[in-house]
Amino acid sequence: xxxxxxxxxxxxxxxxxxxxxxxxxxxxxxxxxxxxxxxxxxxxxxxxxxxxxxxxxxxxxxxxxxxxxxxxxxxxxxxxxxxxxxxxxxxxxxxxxxxxxxxxxxxxxxxxxxxxxxxxxxxxxxxxxxxxxxxxxxxx
Length: 140
Ligand SMILES: Cc1cc2nc3c(=O)[nH]c(=O)nc-3n(C[C@H](O)[C@H](O)[C@H](O)COP(=O)(O)O)c2cc1C
Prior knowledge:
The chain is an alpha+beta fold. It has four helices and five strands; from the N terminus they run βαββαββαα. Strands 4-1-3-2-5 form a five-stranded mixed beta sheet, sandwiched between helices. α3 runs antiparallel to α4. The longest helix is centred in the N-terminal third of the chain and has 17 residues, at 16-32. The structure holds flavin mononucleotide. The site of flavin mononucleotide has 15 residues, from α1, β3 and α2. Residues 22, 25-26, 29-30, 39, 46, 48, 60, 63-64, 67, 69-70, 91 line the site of flavin mononucleotide.
C-alpha cells in the first residue's frame, strides 16, 4: 500500500457546490476502490493525502492532476506503508477557509492537529508532513 500527498491551488471560480460535487464523486469512487484519505481546503489551497493500493492511487492521481478545478499540483510525498491513518474515511474533508471558521475553532483545530498526527502508532514522514502543512495553512 502507498500514501501520496500533494498540494494544489484551487481554480478561481471554485465554490462550495463544486467542492461537494468533488467529495460526492470521490467518496463513491474511493469506497469502491478501498481508498482512504483526507482533503483540506484553505482559502485557495488544497492539500490531500490518499492511501491505498499503489496502482489504484497512481491511477487516481493521474486523473486528479488533469482536473481543471485546481492547478499547480505539487507532489509532496509518496511512500509505502502498512497501516492506514484515515481508515474510517473514504475522504475526510476540512474546510479551513477564513469565512467558515471563527478564530476559536481555528485555535482548537490547530491545537488538535498534534493529536491527529499521533493517532497513528508510528506516524509516517508523510503523515507528519501532511499535518504540519495543514497547521501552516492555518497561520495565514
Ligand atoms: C482537489 C481534488 C481532489 C479530488 N479527490 C478525489 C478523490 O479522492 N477520489 C476521486 O475519485 N476523485 C477525486 N477528485 C476528482 C478527480 O479529479 C476526477 O474528477 C474523478 O476521478 C473522475 O474522473 P473521470 O470522470 O475521468 O473518471 C478530486 C478532484 C480535486 C480537484
